[in-house]
Amino acid sequence: MRIHPTVIVRIRCAISNCYLVIGERPLLVDTGAPGDLRRILRALSAHQIEPGRLSLILLTHGHSDHAGCTAELKRRSQAPVALHAADVPLAQAGRNGVLAPTSPLARLARPFVDEPFEPFVPDLAFHDGFDLAPYGVRGRVLATPGHTPGSASVVLASGEALIGDVLRGSLVVPNAARQHFFCGDPELNLNSIARLTREGLLRCHPGLFGSFPGSALPRFMTPIGEVMDLSEQPAPF
Ligand SMILES: [Zn+2]
Fold first, then answer.
1. Helix axes 37-46 and 70-77, enclosed angle (nearest 10)
2. Of the chain's two ends, which shows fewer C-beta atoms within 10 Å, N or C?
3. Domain residue limits at 35
4. Structural domain contains residue 231
5. CA distance 27 to 30
6. Model pLDDT for residues 186-214, shown as the tens digit of each residue
7. How far is the CA of 74 from the centre of ligand 1 (A)?
8. How far is ligand 1, taken at its centre, from the CA of residue 147, in Å?
9. Residue 163 alpha carbon to ligand 1 centre in Å
10. What is the dihedral of CA 10, 12, 15, 18, to 10 degrees?
């Protein structure tokens, strides 16, 4: 059987990243902020992908800088939209809900990133272990709550992962991971980071700034930055 290599294309939007994941079929992970539509359509076009060829629009969570163009992209592509069930209320309201800052800087930035978006109803409200094989990509979606109740991460068979806002990259330091500016439930987020760590990931592609190696995850697993003993083996794919 011929295994199709999976290609990850980062689409830099006004605030956050979207990703085009191209396997046997292409799927789009996240849809940017309201106003990012042209950027996303340009990226699709650069890879000769008509919107109608997208097998799925998958959202890592229901914030406006990740779900902002979902309604318009669904109209153009007719692709089904998938979102974790716990973030469906955000999508239906077209609002971020509570953005809890993790630093004084984030508190200052909050008014500038907290914008409403066109509401929508997802076609698929998944929970955990959502299999992407029917959509042409070898991978699955894990529930990684904390940033929002319905935050989720795409874990590809290649060992790469698209982790939404579980952590962010650094704007200035290549390959560095940082705590995200906002986190609804820090304790839950630590559990999600631990879960991703157990996956033995090679590379993490965050929703904000650049990617970093999976080996950067463990130092975020405790509130004081201690590295924990990881004797538990990664779950089989
Ligand atoms: Zn977010």
1. 40
2. N
3. 7-220
4. no
5. 10
6. 999 999 999 999 999 999 999 999 999 99
7. 20
8. 7
9. 11
10. -40
Residue keyed to tokens 């004084």: 104
Collapse the DSSP code of 94 into the 3-class scheme (helix H, G, I; strand E, B; otherwise coil) and give the result. coil
In a domain, 237, yes or no: no
Residue type, 75: R
90 within 8 A of 63, measured Cβ to Cβ? yes
- Distance, CA 61 to ligand 1 centroid (Å)? 7
Tell me how far apart the alpha carbons of residues 5 and 205 are, in angstroms, rounded to a whole number. 17
What secondary structure letter does DSSP report for 200? T
Classify residue 227: in a domain, yes or no: no
Which residue, among 141, 137, 103, has the nearest Cα to 122 in the 3D structure? 141
Residue 181 lies in a domain: yes
Task: Give me the CATH number covering residue 167.
Answer: 3.60.15.10
Reported as a single tens digit per residue, the pLDDT across 48-59 is 999 999 999 999
Total domains in the chain come to: 1
Ligand 1 centre to CA of 200 (Å) is 24
